[in-house]
Amino acid sequence: xxxxxxxxxxxxxxxxxxxxxxxxxxxxxxxxxxxxxxxxxxxxxxxxxxxxxxxxxxxxxxxxxxxxxxxxxxxxxxxxx
Length: 81
Prior knowledge:
By secondary structure, this protein is mainly beta. It has strands spanning 2-3, 8-9, 21-27, 30-36, 42-49. The chain is 0% helix and 32% strand. The strands form two sheets. It has a three-stranded antiparallel sheet, with no helix packed on it. A two-stranded antiparallel ribbon has the order 1-2. It is elongated, with a radius of gyration of 18 Å.
């Protein structure tokens, strides 16, 4: 939600495809919201002046049911140094 001088404007930024994610960063008076691919390549970026940002609301992705090919993840042992 952004203060637009007398009213508030709402921008919706979503991870539009499977495997993509949205990251929020801020610094030097700017809030930046970026949609990234699995490899970390930016697809879309929105930048707002931090003084104008009223709220940033993050919603988790919906949980899906496990499918039979989902395998458990096992931690790999660390090599001896």
